[in-house]
Amino acid sequence: MDQQRRRRPSRRQRRLVLILGAAVSSGLMFAVAIFGMAFLSWFIDVLAVPLAICGINGIQISERPLFMLGFHLFFLALVAVICFLIVDSLNSLMKRWD
């Protein structure tokens, strides 16, 4: 019985793990979102050149601000869903410790 009590973290430790996990995952996902959007803009510009060579003219995706905004919003929504899943899994882990 004593060994089982020692292994179980306190309520304060569980909250600390949840808060730190949420902060770290949110920070990492924010960094991924920023670099991902920059890479996505670069990739779309690079992709426009082969499409123009193949005869598909007039596709300058980076000149269409609504299209780029849609890509960025989709990427940010994807990052938000991943952050939510990480925090939710941490929360379920905390409940399992109870």
Entry keywords:
3 helices; rod-shaped
Summarize the helices and strands and which ones pair or pack.
Layout: H1 2-7, H2 11-53, H3 65-97
Brief summary of the model shown:
With about 100 residues, the chain is mainly α.
Description:
- The protein is mainly α and 98 residues long.
- The chain has one domain.
- Helix content is 84%, strand content 0%.
- The protein has 3 helices and no strands.
- The longest helix is centred in the N-terminal third of the chain and has 43 residues.
- The chain is rod-shaped, with a radius of gyration of 22 Å.
Count of the separate structural domains? 1
Shape: rod-shaped
How far apart, in Å, are the first and last alpha carbons? 16 Å
Rg (CA only): 22 Å
Number of helices: 3
For the sheet with most strands, the description reads:
none
Using DSSP, what is the number of strands? 0
Strand content: under 5%
Order of helices and strands: HHH
Q: Give the mean pLDDT.
A: 72
The structural class is: mainly alpha
> Runs with pLDDT <50, length 5+?
none
Helix content: over 70%
